[in-house]
């Protein structure tokens, strides 16, 4: 960076998932471009919001509202300033494109005997504090999938991705609790299933959260740039793919993204 980093240190926190890491890297570069030294911290969902509530995170990238993270932000909402959303995330259950749409079109189809007998019924997720994990655990029961032998088990992001990659390589029939933005969607052309009960929540807004006590320490130009920044789901997935599929670091991906959008 050409700008001297002489401004106040700002702590940017992100949830410990790759696409959150990508969005946080863009935020970091914007702050550095306005002279700030940036310290980075990442943690699981609930813990990160607790850290900001305790004053250890100045900028949290990002809160998914209202469906996913409102329960975590509610404890200190009066101390928080939300910027305009950077993208609009949502959760889905999806299947690989080689599973015919006329066989599996909606979540309830998974319970049909002719489908269940072909499916891998161990459904993998990410950490239990994630919205997709909370929603998916409820769905297994609500759609009667447990009676057809399905189970849902949360785990690490690394294990989740490894299972998806291996099962697709083996052309297994399986369902993937996932979200947009996430690079696996574009890498594998995953097909979302219809979910008529509405248990996966609505489309959220992904808004950076700044502690009100931190606002005066952030350069006004950085605030304006971050408030105007719109990555979009496609932009975050592009960043995420550069990191996970092409080997860039989050900061290298952020530099490439911002260089194309001066």
Which ranges are low-confidence, i.e. pLDDT below 50, for 5 or more consecutive residues? none
Number of helices, where a helix is a run of at least 4 consecutive DSSP H or I residues: 10
Can you name the CATH architecture of the largest domain?
Answer: 3-Layer(aba) Sandwich
Quickly give the structural class: alpha/beta
Morphology: elongated
Q: Number of DSSP strands? A: 10
Largest sheet: 5 strands, mixed
Considering DSSP H and I runs of 4 or more, what fraction of the residues is helical?
25-40%
Q: What string, H for helix and E for strand, traces the elements in order?
A: EHEHEHEEHEHEHEHEEHHH
What's the number of domains? 2
- Proportion of strand residues: 15-25%
Rg, Cα atoms, Å:
19 Å
What is the CATH homology-level superfamily of the largest domain?
Periplasmic binding protein-like II
Kindly state the mean pLDDT as a whole number?
A: 95
Distance between the termini: 14 Å
Q: Strand order, biggest sheet?
A: 2-1-3-10-4
Give a nutshell description of this structure.
Helix content is 37%, strand content 20%. It is α/β, with parallel strands linked by helices and 262 residues long.
